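1st attempt posting a full record on here, be nice pls
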Amino acid sequence: MSLGLPGQIIEIEGAVALVDFWGTRKRVRVDALDVTVIAGDYIIEHEGSAVRRIPVEEVADTLGMYEVVLCEAGEDPVAREAAAELAVEEELELV
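the predicted structure (as tokens):
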């Protein structure tokens, strides 16, 4: 099972945004969204693409819910997923 994660857009370049996920930054495609996003917006990311912009009034509740889920999981799936993706990116750069 894969969990969509909330993150804050730091910058956007074309169809790709640099997004911060609790201190881990990665590039995410934003071109499939049906709304325009800007730096500062929060999105839900799933497998490298933004699937939803989080409305401003829902950001605090959404982040709080994810904090609870992560704490109850007993591990940090965000860090695990980010580390796996970085390893793949490093392998691609070496080829």
